[in-house]
Here is the input.
Amino acid sequence: MTSTILALDLGTTTGWAIRALSDPITHGFVTFRPQRFEGGGMRFLRFKRWLTEIKATAGEIHAVYFEEVRRHAGVDAAHVYGGLMATLTTWCEHHNIPYQGVPVGTIKKHATGKGNAGKGDVIAAIRARGHSVTDDNEADALALLHWALDTQEA
Here is the structure.
C-alpha cells in the first residue's frame, strides 16, 4: 500500500486514525471543546489547524474518510458535527485531498458483523485487532480506517 489514509470520527471529541504509507497505524483522540472567552467559531479554527499539523506530520494525505452521521441526539451535537464536517471538506478541497463519508452502520458491520453494534462491541472488536483504545471515538476512527484499508485500497 502506498497511500496515507486519515480516518475521523467527528465530534467535540474527535477520534482519529492514520496509516501513513508503510508505517504502522497511529491513532488517538483530540477534544475541541470551546475555551473560556472564546468565540463560537474558534473550535473550528483549532480543528483546521490540527488537520494541517496532522498533514505536516504525515507528509501527505491521499484520502480522508469520516463517519457520516445522519441523526444526532441533540441540536448542539448536530451543529458541532456540521461545523466540523464543513471545515473538513473545505480543508480537503483546498488541499486536493479526496474525502468520503461512510455511514455508521457500514463501519459497525465491518468491525463487528452487526450494523447496530454498541460502543462496547466496537471497542472490543478494535482491541481484538491488537489496538489499545480507551475512547469510543478513537475506536470508531480505527474501525473506519480498517474498513477503508479492507474495502477501498487495492
Summary: The first strand starts at residue 5 and ends at 9.
